[in-house]
Amino acid sequence: MEQSQKTKIDCYVVFTKSTYKHWVMTFFNKQISHCYVMMKSTGGHFWHIINPTVSHLSVQTEFVEDYPHPRQYAGVNAVIVPVRAYVSNKPRWGLCFFTCVEVVKSVLGIKDFWIMTPWQLYKYLMKGNSNGNGNG
After folding, report:
1. Number of structural domains in the chain
2. Across the chain, what does the average pLDDT equal?
3. What is the C-alpha to C-alpha distance for residues 37 and 20, in angstroms, rounded to an integer?
4. What is the pLDDT of residue 112?
5. Range of the domain at 34
6. Is residue 108 part of a domain?
7. Are 106 and 82 in contact (CB under 8 A)?
8. In which band, very low, low, confident or very high, does the pLDDT at 90 lie, cut at 50, 70 and 90?
């Protein structure tokens, strides 16, 4: 039987207003309707930015010296939540849509199926669930 292992991940979840125009967006919170993750590389010299968009998954690397704080990358209107997650190697089961929330949940090891919108994820993290138990 394989031992359960956990990996610590320190990152920032960035919540913004989506620029996507679709009728389904009327059901989303107007200011928090998109999310993505920023995390520093090993050694802390680079930002890894994982930004799931409507058309593709954008993965960028930027110098930390160019953006010393996530606010300088994300902009003044973004809501930024620091997260320390302890991601388990246990499988993340379930059927889901490929959305920004599902990608961020996957990075953080959150397995809660009922978190489906950026606003729900924001509320979940603000309740202190960002301790990274990996269970969701």
Report:
1. 1
2. 83
3. 18
4. 86
5. 6-129
6. yes
7. no
8. confident
Going by C-alpha positions, the residue among 85, 101, 98, 96 that lies closest to residue 16 is 101
| CB neighbours of residue 8 within 10 Å | 9
Q: Please report whether residue 135 resides in a domain.
A: no
Q: Is 109 helix (H, G, I), strand (E, B) or coil?
A: coil
Of 50, 23, 17, 24, the C-alpha closest to 116 is 24
Q: How far apart are CA 14 and CA 37, in angstroms?
A: 6
Judge residue 21's burial from the number of C-beta atoms within 10 Å of its C-beta, 0-12 exposed, 13-18 middle, 19 or more buried.
exposed
Instruction: Kindly state whether residue 32 falls inside one of the protein's structural domains.
Output: yes
Q: What DSSP letter does each residue of 37-63 carry, written as one string?
A: EEEEPTTSSEEEEEEE-SS-EEEEEEE
**Cα-atom radius of gyration of the chain, to the nearest Å?**
15
Q: Is residue 46 part of a domain?
A: yes
The position carrying tokens 């059927």 is 95
Scanning the structure block, which residue is given the tokens 């960035």?
14
| DSSP-based three-state secondary structure for 131 | helix
Query: Per the structure block, which two tokens stand in for 101?
Result: 């929330």
